[in-house]
Amino acid sequence: MEQQQREMQSECIFIGKVIKVNDDLTYKIQVVESLDGGDVQDNIYIGQNWKTCYPYIEENGFWLFYGRIVDGFFKVNRCGLSRPFDHPFASLSDSDEVQKLSRKLDSENLVEKEADIIFKQMQLMDLANEIKALRRRRDSYLRPNKIN
């Protein structure tokens, strides 16, 4: 349910590449792929970090962005689902693949490094599943007569 609420709150949902981060809390994003059909590929947004809430954009890289335009700046939803591809932490979905890894994590006596690897696999799998679902939803909006 949280996923749908976050989508409803978002004016923009896209995969973007952070191409510049400035000291004044602003950053530059290039749209790589629109996941709601509303953003033009290669469009550049100037983003602005919130001062107090995650996610906080502080380095270049690829992200899944959920946000909106506020006073001329792109702002990620506060405490939302936006996250970088290299550290894709967010609340996990209930997909079968993620739950299987979760059970493995809970049932085995793993050293911390092994547990971290499994947890990162879970996060990456969850990110991939989320992007896949967003693409499917976008495509059904753009081509309503297409059967999935």
Q: Which overall shape is indicated by the principal axes computed on the Cα atoms? A: globular
Q: Please, what is the average pLDDT?
A: 84
Could you say how many structural domains there are in total?
Answer: 2
CATH-level-2 architecture of the largest domain? Beta Barrel
Give the C-level CATH assignment of the largest domain: Mainly Beta
Q: Can you give the helix content as a percent range?
A: 25-40%
- Tally of DSSP β-strands: 6
Count every helix, treating DSSP H or I runs of 4 or more residues as helices: 3
The chain-level structural class is alpha+beta
Radius of gyration: 16 Å
Q: In terms of per-residue confidence, which ranges show pLDDT below 50 for 5 or more consecutive residues?
A: none
How far apart lie the N and C ends? Answer: 22 Å
Major sheet attributes: 6 strands, antiparallel
Kindly identify the CATH topology of the largest domain: OB fold (Dihydrolipoamide Acetyltransferase, E2P)
- Beta-strand level of the residues, as a percent range? 25-35%
Order of helices and strands: HEEEEEEHH
